[in-house]
Amino acid sequence: xxxxxxxxxxxxxxxxxxxxxxxxxxxxxxxxxxxxxxxxxxxxxxxxxxxxxxxxxxxxxxxxxxxxxxxxxxxxxxxxxxxxxxxxxxxxxxxxxxxxxxxxxxxxxxxxxxxxxxxxxxxxxxxxxxxxxxxxxxxxxxxxxxxxxxxxxxxxxxxxxxxxxxxxxxxxxxxxxxxxxxxxxxxxxxxxxxxxxxxxxxxxxxxxxxxxxxxxxxxxxxxxxxxxxxxxxxxxxxxxxxxxxxxxxxxxxxxxxxxxxxxxxxxxxxxxxxxxxxxxxxxxxxxxxxxxxxxxxxxxxxxxxxxxxxxxxxxxxxxxxxxxxxxxxxxxxxxxxxxxxxxxxxxxxxxxxxxxxxxxxxxxxxxxxxxxxxxx
Amino acid sequence: xxxxxxxxxxxxxxxxxxxxxxxxxxxxxxxxxxxxxxxxxxxxxxxxxxxxxxxxxxxxxxxxxxxxxxxxxxxxxxxxxxxxxxxxxxxxxxxxxxxxxxxxxxxxxxxxxxxxxxxxxxxxxxxxxxxxxxxxxxxxxxxxxxxxxxxxxxxxxxxxxxxxxxxxxxxxxxxxxxxxxxxxxxxxxxxxxxxxxxxxxxxxxxxxxxxxxxxxxxxxxxxxxxxxxxxxxxxxxxxxxxxxxxxxxxxxxxxxxxxxxxxxxxxxxxxxxxxxxxxxxxxxxxxxxxxxxxxxxxxxxxxxxxxxxxxxxxxxxxxxxxxxxxxxxxxxxxxxxxxxxxxxxxxxxxxxxxxxxxxxxxxxxxxxxxxxxxxxxxxxxxxxxxxxxxxxxxxxxxxxxxxxxxxxxxxxxxxxxxxxxxxxxxxxxxxxxxxxxxxxxxxxxxxxxxxxxxxxxxxxxxxxxxx
Lengths: 376, 467
Description:
Chain A has ten helices and twelve strands. By secondary structure, chain A is an alpha/beta fold. The radius of gyration of chain A is 21 Å and the shape is globular. In chain B, the strands form two sheets. A two-stranded antiparallel ribbon of chain B has the order 1-2. Chain B has helices at 3-16, 22-31, 33-41, 52-57, 73-81, 85-97, 102-105, 108-121, 126-134, 137-142, 156-166, 174-183, 228-237, 239-254, 271-283, 288-297, 299-302, 312-323, 333-342, 365-379, 385-397, 402-412, 420-431, 441-460; strands at 187-190, 204-207, 217-219, 222-224. The chains are: A alpha/beta, B mainly alpha.
């Protein structure tokens, strides 16, 4: 269990599109890296050095600050066996922990169910984005999906209070499960009822918030600020989800990655500062992941889909440093030209579920996987 | 004219188009079902929309290159007002498969040009369309084929061509992906002029022979010095391709399928129907018109009423067509065109090359809220001609009891089928105000407001989310 008195909160930050491991945590001292990446390789003098082997991407300065204060963990070589190299299949595997069959239940959907088995709070899990990520999907388990926190509400166009109350009352009854209706009808019904309940709570969060921290004017920073607002409003939310992308850098990789990592690093840095300023950081940990790393050799402009990648954890309770090992880049050790994952992502999930959230990891990730001493 | 005829025609028009008013449904029933199918398929016989009007009143819909202009406003205007509904529906179908977005392409003109290609060729020979897509400048840039060189192969287009545009996972190997990609080396774009002050200039397809890998490749068992055209031929000669397109047709026009990545491990909902559509494609040179004729006239189609969830474009366009008043591109059309994106379908900008997840995955608390709020606002506007038309029909019929008004509204908005519990709530809601009276202008105004209120509840229903 955690050492904090407040309930532990997890923020999951998805880097969509396959973030390039080797240009994020750069093995700058390895000559194989130089040889493999004549075009997209990052010059040694631009690398933000972590130690004598690896360093961060040049735009990750704000996160280096977090690393130096001991609040950032790097998990090397993360993935799973036999990477399919398809974005969609790989993201599904990360979302559902089902590497062979096709899963429909998300790992965080299951975590949400275990955190709130009685479904007492429709805001236990809140996702910021236009769609429901499969990681959060579990039939019957509510997840609030918010695209714009400032305008969140049902039937705001009906301004006459009594009339609106009457219509919403009928709405609630019409959305109550009907006998003999289909699974999709049930899903719609539950979603409607959860929406009704969550809306009037969530849209109060921005009004309850004030901060001296200035977030950059980017889409990802705006979402992270919304997470900070809902977290500080104390609605009992335990899991937040957000994504940013696309990291699918088949071409023009360098300019593209500079912008992405600048926005991610600055946004996340502001978010962590905001929580710290409000004494709201000691119960929050952030997981940052992507569906796969990219190919070891560049293709003359970018990099194609690969296998092994890197994940990161952030937070006051995270024991900073590097975990697992950087996989070998020697040509005889590559699989189809990719570094081979040497740490299973389900081990990291188990670490988070058990050592941070206080849940039983095995039934959620479907198996026993090696944990890391990140929260030890 | 039976209620069943109207209900079936309404079904056809929701699926082959974006719904129709009661006046239009009655006219079409008078012509007959099969005749209507032919009319829908025979797009050239229908008047083309005057697209100059849009540019005349909104000159900034002319999107020079990267300027967003008004995004999808022009397309939305077409979707709502077209006289060729199937042409636009097929454009949306292909846009969901050849999902290409301005988030990366950064060139509205060229993404909209794809929609124009779907309009022109979307009902024709799929093999031609697939080849057109391989040469499409926005597609080439979206999937980096301009960076696919003889000496540095880029697999992005080669992989997605097989995985998402033609065959699906499980029908090819990693080596096929590699040699497919090699076959398309040298297929690139010619940006004739550098980017100008107001954005990019038009792009053009260019084949650069000197950048094409001119050695042997092996693809789906065929070895030779293949070029892109050969690959398209090998793909479309493979029955897996016909099955893939057939399953897409089924999911889009008949009933929601599981998501594409699950197709290699989950059998179709109706294997016989997918087989029939696939065989029709194979036996008719991939002619989409012939295949859709078979589909719309089939029993499985006629029996599939309300077996699909509406996508956001169907919600927005269908409701606008019902309430009317969007025939002229009035101010505010820019905001209207963004409504589908608020519900999870940003036209011209899909979330990734996989396109949108459909069916129940359209629905989450945020998107459902947007659906309800937008449609309730539209039917709450009693000045809309579609609302007045529904009220006029109720007056003519002499509906005065709350139950008759509820039934009238459900009938004229669809006909919609709702479960008995919903029906009780709708009647209960209207009963609070007593019987309706239409005998004076004042009473008509009051009664119309109440009809509009119950319509707000009807569009909020779960049942309204089904097509």
